[in-house]
Amino acid sequence: MNQSAPQLTLTPPNTRVRLGAKKWLQLKRSQDIIETFAWATVIFVASMFFLDGGLAKFGNLNDILQSTSRLTALIGTDLLLIQTLLVSRVPWLDKLYGHDKVTVAHKKLGKPVLYIISAHFLASLIQFAIADGKSVVAEMVTLFVSVPDMWSATVGLALMIVVVITSINAARKKLSYEVWYIIHLLAYVSILVAVPHQFSTGSDIAGKPLQTLFWVSLYLFVALNVVWYRALGPLLLNLGLGLRVSSIVRESSDTISIYLSGRGLERLGGQAGQFYMLRIMNAANWDKPHPFSISAAPNNRFVRFTIGDRGDFTSKLPDLKVGTRVFLEGPYGVFTEERRTREKVTLICAGVGAPPIRALAESMAARPGDITIIYRVRSYEDAALLTELEHVARQRGFRLHVLSGKRGAANSWLPGHLNDLPDHTRLLEMNPHVSESDVYICGPGPWTHAVEKSLQRVGTPASQIHAEEFAW
Amino acid sequence: MRSATKTFVGLAGIGVLVATAKLGLPTATATAATVTSDTATTSTTTSTTDTTTSNSNTGTKATTTTKKSTSTKKSTTTTKKSTGSSSSTGTTTTPTTPTTAGVSGTKTGSAFEPVFGSNIQLSVTKVDGKITDVTCVVCEATGGRRGAFPGLIQAAVSANGTNFGNMGGATYTTSAFKKALKDAIAKF
User: Fold this and answer.
1) Alpha-carbon gap: B161 to the closest alpha carbon of chain A (Å)
2) Which position among A397, B90, B145, B159 has the lowest Cβ density within 10 Å, counted as fewest Cβ atoms?
3) B38 pLDDT exceeds 50?
4) Chain B contacts of A146, Cβ < 8 Å?
5) What is the pTM for the complete model shown?
6) What is the rounded CA–CA span in Å between residue B124 and residue B110?
7) Which residues are registered as beta bridge partners of B135?
8) Does pLDDT of B49 surpass 80?
């Protein structure tokens, strides 16, 4: 443990941020365009199938199975590619929705995609079996042996099933992150082995120029985004930055700060409130990325993460050697000034939610009195970064409320000794302007929801509430 | 998505789907040849629809169409027979007009071991480098998949090669057909 922290010099506030309600409209418009485009691909593949006379063939059982097989294959594959894109961490999606929302969408889409593709498998298998007058098992053997790429496509489906089953909440809890992650990588393999049969034996691509163009470009687009933003881009950036641990500082009874130094840190390009996937490049940890928010505004001297002891990985961090190589992937998240539309801001955090709030407080430009910081802690010993928040508040003329103490009522986000008045009354007491301010909340999920409820009670519009949960 | 956009995209999407579905209905021919257990009906239906489509502009009546399709079918059968007899000698080349620049002639591919009832040997006729006719030397398939052959032949002619989609319901007949076709084309 190295106790010498770089002296606290505040980075000047970011005065280039634009404010105003127009920002919200622009964001919504961009989101609409992206979503419309996604739906358009689904409509395109379905309408091309209809143009090809797909609907004409719903006469008998054989036709119904055959058409179902084609249509589910087209829609399933299209959604599967969108699904892959959602997890490629492309900046243009992250900037519009935030990493957490994109991940939620990816999780939601997982099961339906598998169902649709399984329907394709079953419909074609049963249809073949009926047409041949064979048992389903015998037909499967025939297909494996005599039709090109059919066995690899089936292997792809089997892998897909494994990936989805291991991601169901119940199974996910029993597996370690590492095991789950390795299995989840099989999803890429499953797509790769299933692609050929679409082109070699499918009815809807070969000999149809428009469809061929569509599918080839869709595959290429997704593949390039995944390869660049998930692998190649971060790798090249990190090789150039050469980040190393420069010092480790204890912040509170269970919190430490890790300082990283490297070449040309401005190339990281993050904003206050964002987070990175942190990879400690030693034998034990290089393959286990963990998400952490930066706890100081981006600057060209250091990158700092303030990390609470929350489990296996974080408990070993204080023993990290100075000079250890670190890889960062990111920046991710929309818990930033990009979302700010008002001059007044309320920053609310609890416990280990403090780091991004601390960084935001440092980088936000505001007149004295326009920013209110509310910091909820169990005790003053646990309050990481408190002296720094006090320092920022003093320097910039922001108000700081520290709420220390044990939990009171179950649905309250305030300490027990403040439960004599309703939460939202206390909130108005701390900041009378809360309904006309942008509110940034960072804390555990249920606590965040309690804060959001109080905000709704005092009339803060949803468009002004920005929350980031720890869960990811 | 905002609700206004959602409504717009939803309605536009439904509109496109309905429009394409309607447009798709009458043109359900070439690639859409269905394979059923009743081979004869299928092929007749297919050719009838074909003729209807091609003649729809001139407004030919249904009775004429049926007659035409029957005659077409007869002629196809004759061609098949004649090619079948000549193929016994192996590869045959029919001399064609010498004025054309591209390759012309008829070549017969080699016979393959039957795979799961798909026993196919084809003879390809090219005029000026373009495939004008594909005929069956042997065309055997199980489970009524023989019905796929007219469609496959048509697809091969219009794609001028093997670059055409799978015949729905006859996936491995299609792949066996493509293999035989490739072999015959390679003989040129």
Assistant:
1) 10
2) B90
3) no
4) 115-116, 118, 172, 175-176
5) 0.76
6) 12
7) B123
8) no
Instruction: Say how many C-beta atoms besides its own lie within 10 A of residue A375's C-beta.
Output: 24
Are B143 and B135 contacting, i.e. CB atoms less than 8 angstroms apart? no
Report the distance separating Cα A125 and Cα A132, nearest Å. Answer: 11
B126 DSSP β-pair partners: B105, B131
Do B20 and A53 lie within an 8 Å CB cutoff? no
Hey, are the CB atoms on B17 and A43 less than 8 Å from each other? Answer: yes
Cα distance between residue B145 and residue B173, in whole Å = 7
Mean pLDDT of chain A: 89
**What was the pLDDT predicted at A202?**
79
Residue of A43, A71, A72 best to disrupt the B interface, most CBs of B under 10 A: A43
Is residue A357 within 8 A of residue A270, CB to CB? The reply is no
For residues A297 and A11, give the distance between their C-alpha atoms in angstroms, rounded to a whole number: 7
Taking 70 as the threshold, does the pLDDT of residue A418 lie above it? yes
CA–CA distance, A397 with A214 (Å, rounded to integer): 56
- Per residue in A70-110, pLDDT (tens digit) is 899 999 999 999 999 998 889 999 999 988 889 889 999 98
pLDDT digits (tens, 9 = 90+) for A118-147: 999 999 889 888 877 788 888 888 888 777
Q: How big is the A-B interface in CB pairs under 8 Å?
A: 124
